Amino acid sequence: MMIVAEKMLVTVSPHLHKKDETIERAMKDVLIALTPAAVWALVVFGFNVVYILAVSCITAALSEVIMRKLLKRKATLRDYSAMVTAVLFAFLLPPTTPLWVVAIGAFLAVGIGKELFGGLGKNPFNPAIFGRLLLWFSPLAVYTTKFVEPFFWKTSGFFTPIATSINEGAVGRVVYKTMAGNPVDIATAATPLSLLKSGKWLPDMVAGPTPVGATWVTSGGKPSFWSLFLGAKSGCIGEVCILALIIGGAYLLWRGTIDWRIPAGIIGTLFLLTLVTWYHPVYNLFSGGLFLGAFFMATDWVTSPVSKRGKWIFAVGIGATVFILRFWSLRPEGVALAIFFWNIGTLVIDRYIAVPRFGEVGNKVFNQLPALPEPAPEPAKKRA
Amino acid sequence: MKRTGSAAGRRIPRLIPRIRGGVHPPDSKQLTADKPIRKMDAPSTVVLPLRQHLGAPCSPTVGKGDRVLVGTVVGDAEAFVSAPVHSSVSGTVQNVAPYPHPAGGEVLAVIVENDGENEIDPGLSPRDWKKLDEDGIRRAVRSAGMVGLGGAAFPTHVKLSPPRQYPIDTVILNGAECEPFLTSDYRLMLEAAEEIVEGLRIIMKAVGAPRGVVAVEDNKPQALRAMAETIRDPAIELRSLHTRYPQGAEKVLITTVLGREVPSGGLPMHVGVVVNNVGTAQAIARYFRTGMPLVERVVTVTGSVVRDPSNLLIPLGSSFASAVEACGGFSETPAKVIMGGPMMGLAQYTLDVPVVKGTSGILALSSAEAGYEILREPVCIRCGRCVQACPMNLIPNYLAIYGHREKWADLERLHINDCIECGCCTYTCPTRNPIVQLIKAGKVELERRKALVEKRRKDKAGAEQGEGGGDGGR
């Protein structure tokens, strides 16, 4: 019989750890949750989406490996966080972004936005948004701010890679070319939000057929509810199908990976504010990157507050900022900017928003007892 | 408030409020839940550490070569917050020397060679608590060496002596046993419900409380039934609690049962409550019935590598090794042996430590259970899992970060001393950060620094005074 155990492990309690509660699991969950939106993007924008996603993922993985090697850190590729960033970053791009621009952006997102700040957990900004905004503020912006109409692949072919190219003839205008450099007859289309912001509906620019044959604009020229909700509209790769994003978000909520307060706060605030000002509430909700941002970007663990109260402030803040940017600014990327601002705000929220801790005197009726604690009673007891 | 009354029925009111935060680890109680308590024979030598409680350690009252009997006092102290230690066997004192203690380090211990006669000290006799006044009960409880048997081992008579300005209106018996693996309280509730209820009545009398509550987690329906069948007194209620760790933590329990929050830095008596473990109540009742002080306790010896996990009634001072031997030994080498439960228990480096009053369980984990893979370097990814799990509503991740960076002022700002060290934060952390471990270290360091500052201040004041005196003398 063996009694004396040698070399027993001595650690400080607790000695149990929750199973299946790992970063890998959470990141895989996010990737699974993004799948419906990716599939729909494939339907709307053709195989271009796959090229962009592939380039983004490969660049992100390489950036992470190389940056961590340069900075002499342990490799962390297998926690999938670079993949999540890469997919989210690709989702923020127009479907015709040239692949070299995608590669630069993915490097900015993962290599600079995450690894240079110290790796996962130390990045102050959501890496995907960081990369997207850097591109947006760079001279490459022209490649990432023009959108094509949905189902454009019907004229060019499903598998033909199409990229935005600068039109030498007119400054600020772009044309679309295949990889081989042949121009294609595809027109730039306005996104639903830019329609809204320009103040007038532009029927001739957005008219086009849907898969079922009906037009996806209403008689007034603005996209119909169903085209907005189901994603028959121009826009970034990942943001078009609200239904797919809701399915993904619901999956993450069910798995407990994200906190419901953040999407609820963002969407609720924007809805309420647009309702009060009567600024096309439903239209506003279903256009732009609101759902993508609310479910997948703002809920990023690293860059959102840790406490419930902080999460509410963060979410309402983002909703209000999106509203301000959409109401008064003609610029796109309102959601990304808003989340970026509040990523900075997170640091302040976490530090200065107090959480009502257990046992704060006066917190409950019962606690309104004498001031505490009293000095210990005199040791008057005699031994028995 | 519903009450499970005498003959009225077996209805056990379900408590609606859930605890704030907390976690739900797999409870693993099935290993020993159906094993009746089995008495273990004392080994040939028992080691009785003179510090088995919180507070002042005892001084030995016997010397080398003295003969002691079962129940003889071997150590006692003058201090109020202390409890005497009794011999659990009859025999000869072999030595009084420092010995490894399961709580860490070496503690002065009385080592008794067991003569196997189990001769009982003639000075012990049953006492009728109904004839004693409050002070008499307190003194009797102290002389029995009674401490909290849940694990913290706080001297019971101190709990029973609340200052007059805090009237106690409720005594709660803690039968939550929220730690995974442990079943000693559960078995006691099944097998000694009568004594538990009597113990509760003794405690209620000692503190002058009109109401008693027995609180049991709802994953122990049999214990709830047994208690419901036993409670006849209309002043005593039975409460079923949600199964969630740390339901049995004193502050959490008071909040779920009574809706009162113990103020930060306060004690249960500040909200008019005394909390005792069901095991303590049973031991008190047993003492009054038999006159035998606290010389044995129920210990759950369990774990997947123990051949025959059981609930043992172990004479205090028996070594962990003898307890494991009484359970058939290990089937494979354990990677970790823990005193207590897996969430708050203390890992042991040797099995040659005695069972003390605070030993609620001996848990042996295999290397598969004890080890875990750290997939990446520990880094806080600010997911907020620990914040959600913290029953004290603290922000554990920042406490750990500031502790790691030695930012002591920030630790105080975030109320590090409110932490009850339940370990929910570490349990739930996806990156396996040692959160509660850093908090514990931070607490100790903060205390040390405060003491240092205080000492410097005093020294300075003393030096100034000395200088002044010297000048005057000149």
Could you characterize what this model shows?
Helices cover 51% and strands 3% of the residues of chain A. Chain A is an all-alpha fold. A two-stranded antiparallel ribbon of chain A has the order 1-2. By secondary structure, chain B is α/β, with parallel strands linked by helices. Chain B folds into four domains: 191 residues, Rossmann fold (3-Layer(aba) Sandwich); 70 residues, Beta Barrel (OB fold (Dihydrolipoamide Acetyltransferase, E2P)); 66 residues, Ubiquitin-like (UB roll) (Roll); 63 residues, no CATH class. Chain B starts with 37 loop residues before the first strand and ends with a helix. Classes of the chains: A mainly alpha (384), B alpha/beta (474). At the A-B interface, helix 1 of A face helix 1, helix 6, helix 8, strand 15 and strand 16 of B.
CATH architectural type of the largest domain in chain B: 3-Layer(aba) Sandwich
Largest sheet of chain A: 2 strands, antiparallel
The span between the termini of chain B is 75 Å
Q: H/E order of the elements of chain A?
A: HHHHHHHEEHHHHHHHHH
Helix content of chain A: 40-55%
How would you classify the helix and strand content of chain B by structural class? alpha/beta
Over the alpha carbons, how many angstroms does the gyration radius of chain A reach?
A: 25 Å
Number of strands of chain B: 17
Strand order in space, largest sheet of chain B: 1-14-13-17-15-16
Keywords:
heterodimer, A: 384 residues, mainly alpha, two-stranded antiparallel ribbon, globular, disordered N terminus, B: 474 residues, alpha/beta, Rossmann fold, OB fold (Dihydrolipoamide Acetyltransferase, E2P), Ubiquitin-like (UB roll), 4 domains, six-stranded mixed β-sheet, four-stranded antiparallel β-sheet, 14 helices, 17 strands, 30% helix, 18% strand, disordered C terminus
